[in-house]
Amino acid sequence: MSEVHAARRAALRAHCSPGDGTALLISRPANLRYLVGAVPAHAALLLTPGGEDVLVGGAVAALRGTPDDALRLLAVDGDTDPAATAAVLAARDGAASLAVEEHHLTVARYRAVRAAGGGLPLGDLARAVEQRRLVKDEAEIAALRTAAEITDRALGELLESILVGRTERHLALELERRLVDHGADGAAFPTSVATGANSGSAGHRPTDRRVEEGDFLTVRLGARYRGYRCRIGRTFVIGSRPADWQIELYELVFAAQRAARETLAPGTECREVDRAARAVLDGAGHADALGPLTGEGVGLEMGEDPRLAPAAMGRLGVRVPVTVEPGVHLPGRGGVRIDDTLVVRPVADGGPELLTITTKELLAL
Amino acid sequence: MSEVHAARRAALRAHCSPGDGTALLISRPANLRYLVGAVPAHAALLLTPGGEDVLVGGAVAALRGTPDDALRLLAVDGDTDPAATAAVLAARDGAASLAVEEHHLTVARYRAVRAAGGGLPLGDLARAVEQRRLVKDEAEIAALRTAAEITDRALGELLESILVGRTERHLALELERRLVDHGADGAAFPTSVATGANSGSAGHRPTDRRVEEGDFLTVRLGARYRGYRCRIGRTFVIGSRPADWQIELYELVFAAQRAARETLAPGTECREVDRAARAVLDGAGHADALGPLTGEGVGLEMGEDPRLAPAAMGRLGVRVPVTVEPGVHLPGRGGVRIDDTLVVRPVADGGPELLTITTKELLAL
């Protein structure tokens, strides 16, 4: 992996520091992970115009052996801001300016960086690293694929166990344990288990409510594997057979989710994906049930670009992993969510690659 | 609780906006929780010089009923920065300036706040809210006490189970499950379980190593209860009896921890607590084994003020909860950590109140 990280840094430098003497200072943890690999807490990366890459941090010594040869490690004590130390280095190396991540550095840290840099002018690197993270390479997609396999397996095992009488909290904890059992670093985001009137609610945090006969049960989880995160969401019915309203609502959300999935192709406008799901739900009178997003990019973080939303700009590209996650929640009754993680692929390569392969039939458990 | 939060806001306003027209903008989540109670994601609190308290946020509607009457709720859509909206309100209300948390706001958000405020001058609220959080009231200490009880119980149950052959990861997950079982909101920080050569290492993340006969086993965990967090750390020996070097090292760390605990009193210099532990370890030739801190404040966050460290400034006050957590790790062999959470109390009230009461005898399990 080490050449991969060195190549990413070289590409970033070529893009953001094209021979004008700009040094780049990266501090946002997910961006550091992308550019360096494993990242210690409290670190900053400096890319000098002269071509030197320096990782400054409180515990970089622990990284020895992990990063690539092209990276110099510089340890600082715990009270020193690594970003400020990086500014000192940039000034010493004769950089003409220093671009920092203004969307991540706090005002207080920014002032410390400015003071440490002497007269070195500061610029904004903005979301340049995030933009480079949008399209994944095949190694990143392989990590996402493994994350999805782990997630499918954890969910599959849960479905084989007895659910009635168990609390949302317990089911969520068991799912997270199973993720780790199967090799995940941990959960990609807090696992949501929602029963009865809670089901289908987007941001539901597990409670002590127990699963009952006749409930809808919505489960949303994802594994984190080598830093990469995915999401699956499924809704089940507890008992021998679903009620008519449950079948109807399930089929509606399934149709909306399928409609959105079917739009996923290189060149599709992001808002077009959202519109496809929304149109199905609107047609059935559930215009307000959908939240602000139908899906979002995933990778080293949940909620990366692109956003699949009504006002989203831009088009999908090849090898962009996204979630498609519409849902409807009827207050007091419950609802349905169906979430998948897919990778945008051209038709020639078989179209969108579905990573989360657990069945989307309405199972009665 | 609602009067408590209103009173905290009034005290903050009296302290930081003494009739000079300064509006206060609080954005740091733990500070919002302190001043408002439950806090939705993506929110900001504005205290106007005229005496109005406004909570601005994306999901403040969900708070209806929770906060106190003295708080106005203002919903904004998900793409709007609540801090920028608060700046608009402050300017409209005729504030002379707006103090923001420069240690929390990013440069990008700061620019958005400045633009939204028109010509409104911005100042720095700095860590004014954190300073007010240092000394806890008895309701906060009661929450910490419950957190510690839950933590002791989860640890006690683990000690009754069979440990040999189980992995660090599994033990950590089981402890976190037990914390939630006993009523915790969740873990206060990632639970650390370290066996064999990993034991005693401060930042150890659980691995797939299994517990073996003869191991030292170090466990560090804490519950989060109503937002309040504590820490306990204990080291055990696996097997019928400890080796001589294990007894010796344990007694040393225990002596260092006790020496530090015994200094805890109102008026003690923070660095004096650290020095007491360090002196014991230095005397035995383990000067380098101790990390930068012997302990730290706890409350709504881990790692609050005060820091118990060699260069720490300031003195302990009554009703300040701190951890005391020295440790020694011998590379390749393992080591010992013993962590407690205590509240500083005057001698007349019985001296320091030990919240984490699990025995510190060296147990052979």
From TrEMBL, chains A, B:
Composition skew (Polar residues), residue ranges? 192-201
Region called Disordered, residue ranges: 190-209
Q: Please list the residue ranges annotated as the Creatinase N-terminal domain.
A: 8-135
Source organism's superkingdom? Bacteria
Q: Which Pfam families match?
A: Creatinase_N (PF01321), Peptidase_M24 (PF00557)
Q: Which residues form the Peptidase M24 domain?
A: 143-345
Please identify the protein, giving its name as recorded: M24 family metallopeptidase
Q: Which organism is it from?
A: Streptomyces lonarensis
